[in-house]
Amino acid sequence: MAAPAPSSCDCFVALPPATAAPVVVFGKNADRPRDEVQEVVYVPAARHRPGDKCTYIEIEQVERTHAVVLSRPAWLWGAEMGANEHGVCVGNEGVWTREPVGEQEALLGMDLVRLALERSRSAHEAVRVIAALLERHGQGGPCKEEPAPFCYHNTFLLADRAEAWVLETAGPYWAAQQGSRNISNQLSIGTDITAEHAGLRQRARSQGWWSGDGEFSFAEVFSLEQQPVRMEAAKARYRAGRELLRQHAGRITAETFMGILRDKASGICVDSEGFRTAGSMVSVLPRDPALPCVHFFTATPDPSRSVFKPFVFVDGLKPAPQVMSPSFADDPAKKIPRFQSKVDRRHQLYRRHEAALALMESDPVPDTPLPFPAAPGLRPSRSPCGGSGQLRVLTTPGLSSSAPLPPQEQGQKLQETLRALERQGLEAAHALLAGTLAPAPEELAELFFDCVDAEMKFYK
């Protein structure tokens, strides 16, 4: 029996006037091998000596890197998605093109996500960083923690407070388009190309893929004539995502994107035998530079059974070891030959969520995210996640404080409790973005940690 064809990621961005407020909203599902662990890590800004070791290769380092928060497969250096202190967000998708996929170790697309975030102050600069590194070092190497190679090229969605870009690649070649939309595991830039590799069209002519006459469509020229099953399936997800953006145009909020990322009917929330949505991210980037950007991460699989927890860049951030995987002195991902054995990379939250997931799936609660403002009784001065000041802990009891219930009712109660936790996090974010909540910096520094800690307590 053949292994299930991998399904991969979906990424979205919406700019005003599609959004309900003067903000940019970014979101992504990272769809990965079913048993892969996604961790969320904060890397502070730093000054460096020459040389930067990525997943497989070492490249030239810049003098200073920006602070970043990353959602990443725990075995590698790069990231599936993330944000930096300047309000830049980047996510990547796997694609297969007419250019051969290289098994030789080079930069992964996930390395390029992190490098762009560490080295860029805007989405446009991030496009230039990725393009330059791609041309200099190439892309390639295994993208799964398994001996059998699974390799692909990449597309990227990049956003900041002002604009968004799509960057699509085929080997070292690339095309970029400025604009607001979704991407989903296929080349989608046609004739409307904002910037491109200097040798892109000559490469297409030399290979007989384009005559040189008429308009040049990057997607038509560089896409495979016979698409892999995984890319054919992505077409339906891409169309569904585009339609969901159209339906919500003018009213898009963080909750809108959370609902889209939880949509299993469209295939955007993946839950198959071989692959599933391993982590999810939604970011709100206000146009007003005086307001903070708010980034939400699940750090657990299946967003329909997970909590989006808010993260804000601030000095003195408290680490959240509950969502960081253990490290290994003899890591099989770092030894040559690679991936000859497996290690347990599950972090604390992953373990507790894993135990609760079967309970929640026994009696699922439909996803009904609330639009801002939240329902009565959820006040902006009450955030989800701890602290003794304006951000205070949620008082909804967990299962451990309730009388014994049948398993189905326990699963339903747990989901309701977790959604209440998430709603209060959204309320706090809304108040921050509206300027009606001004917590002390030390409270913001502990916000993500406290939200993770509150979620873990509800799994006891």
From TrEMBL:
Residue numbers spanned by region Disordered: 384-411
User: Where is the sequence biased in composition, kind Polar residues?
Assistant: 397-411
Any one GO MF annotation of this record: dipeptidase activity
A Gene Ontology biological process noted in the UniProt record is: proteolysis
A Pfam family recorded for this sequence = Peptidase_C69
Question: InterPro entries, alphabetically?
Answer: Peptidase_C69
The record's similarity note reads: Belongs to the peptidase C69 family. Secernin subfamily.
Name of the protein this chain belongs to: Secernin-2
